[in-house]
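// run 5 | inverse folding | seed 20
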């Protein structure tokens, strides 16, 4: 058939055949609020499941207090306890292929922010109070979110 190469490539080790990569699906940076639960799973491409189960993840510098990385899966999880300015982290995924150590890197920008002030909603107003008496404009009450975070 024209255009189809039926020759097989020379045998290669799994380590050289694989060009895996991974990333965190956070669109450039991860911004979390103090006290908010975090659970971000890496997207891993090009690494067979049987090799993926042998992988190991590490991160540097250390994550802020309350956040951790699962060394087996690379999942970032926890709840930060203090605000922190934007910081760059290097995440290393390592594994063995045919007894050959391999690794690949990903970079993550992380910021921990202080949650914005809470907005009083009708359900949190005293029974004898009206929104106007509480100093709240009606258009604020139509907002579906109780807590808003600036990003």
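// decoded
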């Amino acid at each position: 058939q024209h255009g189809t190469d039926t020759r097989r490539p020379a045998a290669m080790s799994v380590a050289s055949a694989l060009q895996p990569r991974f990333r965190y699906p956070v669109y450039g940076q991860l911004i979390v609020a103090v006290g908010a639960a975090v659970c971000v799973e890496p997207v891993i491409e090009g690494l067979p499941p049987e090799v993926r189960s042998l992988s190991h993840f590490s991160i540097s510098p250390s994550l802020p207090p309350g956040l951790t990385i699962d060394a087996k899966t690379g999942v970032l999880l926890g709840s930060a306890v203090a605000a922190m300015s934007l910081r760059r982290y290097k995440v290393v995924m390592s594994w063995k292929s045919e007894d050959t150590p391999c690794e690949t890197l990903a970079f993550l920008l992380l910021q921990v922010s202080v949650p914005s002030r809470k907005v009083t909603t009708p359900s949190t107003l005293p029974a004898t109070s009206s929104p106007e008496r509480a100093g709240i404009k009606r258009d604020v009450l139509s907002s579906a979110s109780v807590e808003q975070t600036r990003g």
